[in-house]
Amino acid sequence: MGRSRAEEFDRFVTARWPALLHLARLLTGGDRHRAEDLLQEALVKLWFAWPKVADEAPEAYVRRILVRAAARSARRRWWGEQPVGTLPDPPAAADETAAVDERTRLEAMLALLPTRQRAAVVLRYYQDLPESSVAGALGCPVGTARSLTARGVARLRRLMAEPAGAGGPAETVGPSGPVGPSGPVGPSGPVGSLGPVE
Question: Full-prediction pTM beyond 0.85?
Answer without folding.
Answer: no
